[in-house]
Amino acid sequence: MSTNKVTLQGNITRDPIVKGKTTRLTLAVDHQKRVGETYEKTGTSYINLLAFNALAEDVAKTFKKGAAITIEGSLHSDRYTDKEQVERFTTEVWLSKVQATVFGKQS
To answer: Across-strand partners of 87?
Structure first.
């Protein structure tokens, strides 16, 4: 049995973009490694997110650029051919849950 479930915490990189009954946004997620008693940032990943219907409306109304959020959803990949006939690949998280996050100190 396999499960397709993603949970991430990060910050919204731009205001959500609404198109019809969908909302697109991008989440910046930091990579960290433990160094002694503290954590050191080693990089950032930018994850494309897509919300549908009522959740799309809620996300667009509630969250703006810079907001810290925790998301749950499923990972979806696709491929397409662009105008120059180059094959492209996309990966995004289709959202099922979004909530505001308050980041605290890590111990």
So the answer is: 81
pTM, two decimal places: 0.84
Please check the confidence at residue 103 and state whether its pLDDT lies above 80: no
Compute the C-alpha angle 77/2/58, nearest 5°: 55
Domain that holds residue 84: 6-100
Do the Cβ atoms of 64 and 107 come closer than 8 Å? Answer: no
Beta-strand ranges (E) seen in the chain are 6-12, 17-19, 22-35, 38-52, 68-81, 87-100
pLDDT, tens digit, for every residue of 84-101? 999 999 999 999 999 999
The Cα–Cα gap between 44 and 54 comes to 29
Kindly compute the dihedral angle of the four CA atoms of residues 21, 82, 25, 8, in this order, to the nearest 10 degrees: 110
Q: Are 61 and 23 in contact (CB under 8 A)?
A: no
Structural domain tally of the chain? 1
3 backbone dihedrals φ, ψ, rounded to 5° = -130, 135
